[in-house]
Predict the 3D structure of the following.
Amino acid sequence: MKLCGSASEAGYDFDTCFNIGQAVNDNCVTVGSSLDHCHIPGREHHRHIPDSAVVLGMGIHNEAGLHEIDPMPTVDELISSMLKYCLDPSDKDRAFVDFSPDDTVLLLVNNFGGLSNLELEALTASTRRLLKKEWSITPERCYVAAFETSLNAPGFSFSLLNVSGIERKTGTSVKDLLKLLDAETTAPAWPRNGYRELEETYVASVGDADAMAANTTDEGPDVDSARLERAIRSACSAAIAAEPQITKWDIEMGDGDCGEAVVGMCQGVLRKLDEGLCKSGKIFHILDEIDEAVEEIGGTLGAIIAIVVAAFATNLRQAAAAAGPDFTVDEKVAGEAAGRALRNLMGYTSARKGGRTVMDTLIPFCETFEESGINEAVKAAEDGAKSTGGMKAKFGRATYVGEKADAGEAPPDPGAMAAFIFLQSFQEGYS
């Protein structure tokens, strides 16, 4: 409907609009699933799906679907099965459309009406990830909304459109077809962005030249990979083990999600280690992958740690470019890079020591690391983290929870303590 409507408004003749519409039908596959049927107002009897089951293949008009799966599979297992019904070329009953690796593909995810936005976006994220992992498909556009509902049915459907197939059938280029989809519309339910990757305008700063010169295909000097992996694993394990206490502190003064965020970051790093991250022994590659794992978690704490790790890696790259082929990462070089990373971070946040944040740990750690080495830095980090106990917060949600902080009874800041626990265990594991 969007393609035909945009084509008509753009002045395409009737036959071309018709052919585009027919080609969309011929190049689209779709499947749905739901936890239950919809409940129709005024009707007393409804067909209910057991709480332990999900229906694969349920239709938007409340059709019964292909079959019930009981016990309910995981989200990834369900979506993987749905994708196979749409994309498996060996399934002669359902292989309606051919998808080649180079084809431009679009994804539309439809809410049957009873899913929350949180659930719908989570399903979309899983679908995009499994499309790439299992079928080597990365959608050029994603459209996610309640396009066509079945009243309050707690289900969803997704549709995959092969735009390259439309081009082959109609002669209208992929570029023009995407332009039609991207055209502005007053239709209230059509997503405005379609999950498009934004084309950022980048202007190099004066200090970028060294970083770009150093950022070559070389992944950095060799480090003791076994020793580094042991230290990272030790740090991640200690932080994960501290989650109950971190969460307890955060529930008292925040929204209770700090422990979960710490676990998410550490588990992401551990997964990369399990995949062989440290085997290369190349420090730049290792830091880049750790930064990626941390950044995926999001949140304020994740953003701050990601900025520090990225800046630390950039500073090492610049030092390597200046030193030449004999460059090695020793404690002095690492300390200088940490100090510069801290100063870079301070350009992104106004939080400083005494604000009851993770900066109460990071600032003394990085400053001391630069001046006196890692052992003294960890001691300074411990002092900084513990100093947040009873401190009145100046940033974040803890600023308005009030009574305990006013009485000097507040627990230590969970982010500050998590950072200290990680750093202390890293030092112990690396020694």
Observations:
- The chain has two domains: 2-182, 221-430.
- The longest helix spans residues 299-323.
- Residues 201-217 have pLDDT under 50 and may be disordered.
